[in-house]
Amino acid sequence: MSFPTNCVLTRYLDNDNDSNSVINLIFLHSSSNELDYHSIHPEWHLSSDHALLTITIPIIEEHVNSSKYSIGKGSEEEVSFIKDVSVIFRNLNTSNISDSTSLDKIVNDLAQEIKYTWKKHLKIVKISKHSKSWWNDKYSHDLEIYRTTRSLEDWKTF
């Protein structure tokens, strides 16, 4: 059930012998307090015999990131990141793990160092409708060969 914000008729007949009435139906989510009220617009019925019913749907403002942090596969940043993480693991001192507290400290310190190393090597990538995270230089190269030769084999390779 929805409650009208203005109590007016919703059906307007051309026939003078019948009376106008309220018979319109509106379906809304049953447990939504925001959608419990609708407006009736008799001035908008034009050639129809029914007035238009409207509701206002609240839309929560949402922030959509247009960039992301990334280290590209096969990039110089990835190579440097892997080298730095390898050094972190090589230098990891596990000789004084005597209880769960000391283990937790080593694991947390390791996580912080890897996080710092990640941030040091990442790049900010702008996300757009043209972004293709799966696309790489090999695809570009294969496409260029196909565009030059127009051969079916090169298309299959691409």
Question: What attributes does this structure have?
Answer:
4 helices, 158 residues, alpha+beta, 5 strands, 35% helix, three-stranded mixed sheet, 2 domains, two-stranded antiparallel sheet
Structural description of this entry:
- By secondary structure, the chain is an alpha+beta fold.
- The protein folds into two domains: about 1-60, no CATH class; about 65-155, no CATH class.
- About 35% of the residues lie in helices and about 10% in strands.
- The protein contains four helices and five strands.
- The protein has helices at about 75-90, 100-120, 135-150, 150-155; strands at about 5, 35-40, 50-55, 65-70, 125.
- It has a three-stranded mixed sheet with strand order 1-2-3, with no helix packed on it. Strands 4-5 form a two-stranded antiparallel sheet.
- Helix 1 (about 75-90) packs antiparallel against helix 2 (about 100-120).
- The longest helix has 22 residues, at about 100-120.
- The radius of gyration is 32 Å and the shape is elongated.
Estimate the strand proportion: 5-15%
Give me the Rg, rounded: 32 Å
Strand line-up of the largest beta sheet? 1-2-3
Structural class: alpha+beta
Largest beta-sheet characterization: 3 strands, mixed
Tell me, briefly, the overall form: elongated
Q: In sequence order, what are the helices and strands, one letter per element?
A: EEEEHHEHH
End-to-end C-alpha gap:
57 Å
Helix content: 25-40%
Number of strands: 5
Low-confidence stretches: none
Mean pLDDT: 83
- Helix count equals 4
Number of domains: 2
